[in-house]
User: Fold these one by one.
Assistant:
Number 1:
Amino acid sequence: MAKKMEPDGIKELIIGYLNEYNSQEHPFLLFDLAHVNENDHTRVLLSILKFNNNQFLPSFLRTIGAPEYNGIVEVPTDQKRAIDGFIDLYFAYKTKENQTENQTEKFIIENKIYGAGDTYRQLARYIATVIPSSDDKSFETICENWKKGEGLSDLSHIHVVYLTADGSKRPSIESLPKYFGGRDTDESDFNENEMKINYYPINYAEDILPWLENEVLPNMPYSDNGIAIAGIRQYIESLKLMFSDKGNSKAVKKFVGVTASKDKTTYDKIDSAISILKSLENKKSKMNIKRSLKDIGYDVADLNLQPLIRDLRVTMNNLFSVDLNEGWKTYFTPTFVLLFKNSWWSESDIKKGYNFPSIHINCSPTKNIFDTKKAKITLKTKADHLPTDTKIVKLRSEWKFEGNRNRTISKDLQLDSQAGDYKVLFTQVVEKLKDNQVIKDIDSVIEKAKKEKKSYQEAVLESLIDYGTASESGNIPLQD
């Protein structure tokens, strides 16, 4: 069965990429040389959070937008025993937000940096493990009560951190069932603000790396001849290498085809290769390709396939990403396409290595994006990566906060389009957007932000707050 899953040349792709990778000069990074796994990344995060009596725990909580820290209750620990499994990382702390009740916040961190799949009801089991409940209640009984809406109000101090590589993965509906709120199916929009628990979809590329660079490294005390500082610097460089978007591997180009056509066949070939590479990293995987590689001296258990997976994903995204009229570009993903202008990039976006600017147009299909006959494209203006301390305020008409711990605001654009040839479709969309007032006002706000040396996100949010009248605010209003 495993042989049928193997696309043509997958073994040659791995060997070619490894030979190419090994022939290049790379930084001397002990973390990469050790061939680490998800548990190793979890232990690094654990060590940082516990360092020097939890010195960096408050800044970590601020980074993800959690309640303010006011003392530890249960110190961070990994592999906490749960109902049929182990929680990757767990801790509990007191908050400053409720001084009268001395409330305890319970944190579950599930590390998916290498894209491992969720097991059945995985996050539900972890949540059931840490809730206060009588001993005679089985997990099945707890789940049945949740389905009936019972006990969900007791979950407001449960925090689930779903930590992924780059934000492209989210938990399945089986792992985090719909009775916790936020969505109805795996495909539906995910609104964390409507969930019964506190849910944090954070990732290494956009959250952990900036936190390590801006909060941990500058504040790491010099001790033990600088070993801790050297360790953090090594880890930062290792993560940067993992998330670098080079997309220029000769082995990948040969596998995909030097002049790869922009069609679903090419996309499916790359997508299948990524799925197989991810499965090879599973210790229990018994695929033929894994055994055949070992026979010729390549033990997958000792290999880091993440750079190859990343390179393939960049190549896949670039297949359908095109330059359009008047500085507009598209950024393709399997589930949505983004439209943006070159001028919408900020220095902050570039510095943090984001693939697309925080201010953009999100184009979501109603069905599979390749279904050109049935899929309808709906558009939404978005401002993402707002400051972590952003509070929900009243916004101008039709603008709203959506998920991501108040760090994203959006407005629907009344401009439906039928899916079809990508360049033709999005060229037409850009033409229709040319005279759209929202787009003009975003341009104005960004120009104002540049002159005043503000972040784009702060400037856009500032312009959208409903102060009653524009003259009272003194800001440029984005028109309704």
Note: Residues 187 and 335 are 9 Å apart (CA to CA).
Number 2:
Amino acid sequence: MNKIAIKYGIFTGFGVILYMLAFYFYDKASMRSPEVIWSTMILYLVGMFWATLKVHRMEGSSNHSIGSILENAKNEEKESSLRNLVSTPFIVFLITNAYFIFFFWWIMNVYDAELLQIHQELTHQEMLGFHKGSDKISEVRKNVLDDYTPTFGASVTKYVMGAIGGFILSFLMALVVRRT
């Protein structure tokens, strides 16, 4: 079952990178926009869903109604099935997110200094807008553009924090797919 998750994670990761590259070649600033970054989540969800559905079908699970799920709640085989159904999309998420985080860090810090400058300027403007009218606005105004450079350590931290959300999405997806 993990082979399926790894395969779908790799394909989904490449899909996310191609999606981001399409925006990069169209307009560098748009690639960095929150709308584009958050819209990659659609690709994550599609990859996670198809992998989970494939694992569910391979296990030969039948259609479960709410009543049958409640009746068989103590059945260890069903619990194992739920574990597989949660781990599959979670592995897909982790692999895809690793591709995304590494690509985002690499393109700005290694490949394109102009994109890094665009990112720094946009992030500074976003931070000024976000903290407008608050006590932190004076601190944000003191920041220099280099303060907004994505570091490898910050990227790893984002990856770990993203894993928490990925697990929640995986659990919800497993519940949905299990009922199909």
Note: The chain has a mean pLDDT of 82.
